[in-house]
Write a structure and sequence with these properties.
With about 140 residues, the chain is mainly alpha-helical. The protein has one domain. The chain has seven helices and no strands. Helix 2 runs antiparallel to helix 3, helix 2 packs across helix 7 and helix 4 packs across helix 7. The radius of gyration is 15 Å and the shape is elongated. The protein starts with a helix and ends with a helix.
Length: about 140
């Protein structure tokens, strides 16, 4: 059984569940990219987070294009990727705002920025799903 068949196509929550699974994968990519940015690229907490978000968002677009919204896959890839980044920019601002607020004002999160990444990802999920479904991958 593959991952796609694990979520029944007729389930009314199917797309959201697949989007959420992709989001969890994106979260792991985000954490890995932030760690890379901080320890290899020597970027700071804020610019490193911008880097990690862009890496994760690009991966999420590719997975959502093939896994979550495959039936709506009609746009040229580069244009769809740009729409995805644009549509998710507000969700990204929410994500980054939660992260920045937490690493700035909560000492534990400053010391463990992964907590901020997780909180930011959860905050942007609903907006990003709605924007992706209604605008980027519209049938």
């Amino acid at each position: 059984m593959n991952l796609r068949s694990a979520f029944a196509q007729d389930s009314r929550y199917s797309e959201f569940l697949r989007f959420s699974v992709v989001g969890v994968i994106g979260l792991l990519v985000d954490i890995a990219a932030l760690t890379f940015a901080l320890h290899v690229l020597n970027l700071g907490l804020y610019s490193g987070r911008v880097f990690s978000y862009l890496v994760a968002a690009s991966g999420n677009w590719a997975l959502n294009r093939r896994f979550t919204f495959a039936a709506a896959d009609t746009s040229p890839p580069v244009l769809q990727w740009l729409k995805f980044l644009g549509a998710n920019a507000i969700g990204g601002l929410v994500n980054y705002g939660v992260y920045a607020g937490l690493v700035t004002f909560v000492p534990l999160v400053h010391d463990w920025p992964v907590i901020g990444v997780c909180a930011g990802s959860i905050a942007g999920l609903s907006f990003n799903f709605t924007a992706s479904k209604l605008w980027v991958f519209k049938r």
